[in-house]
Write a structure and sequence with these properties.
A three-stranded antiparallel sheet has the order 2-1-3, with no helix packed on it. Helices cover 27% and strands 26% of the residues. It has 66 residues and is of the alpha+beta class. The protein has a single domain, classed as Ribosomal Protein L30, Chain: A, CATH 3.30.1390.20. The chain has two helices and three strands.
Length: 66
């Protein structure tokens, strides 16, 4: 399963309550903070909603080949 590395790049000042709540749900609190989340449709949707505030990188996780 792939992982998403999400970094808060912009301030939450003057943002709507929904955007602030979405960023907090992603686990981000400070500018420059990066979190690792599972890549699933729910996370992709949250990242898309606040794309103007965060940057996102996708990485493939090396598995056991099962």
């Amino acid at each position: 399963m792939a992982k998403l590395y999400i970094t808060l790049t912009r301030s939450l000042a003057n943002q709507s309550k929904n955007h602030i709540a979405t960023v907090e749900a992603l686990g981000l609190k400070k500018i420059g903070q990066t979190v690792e989340q599972e890549d699933n449709p729910a996370m992709r949707g949250m990242v898309r909603r606040v794309a103007h505030l965060v940057s996102c990188e996708e990485t493939a996780v090396e598995g056991s080949g099962t």
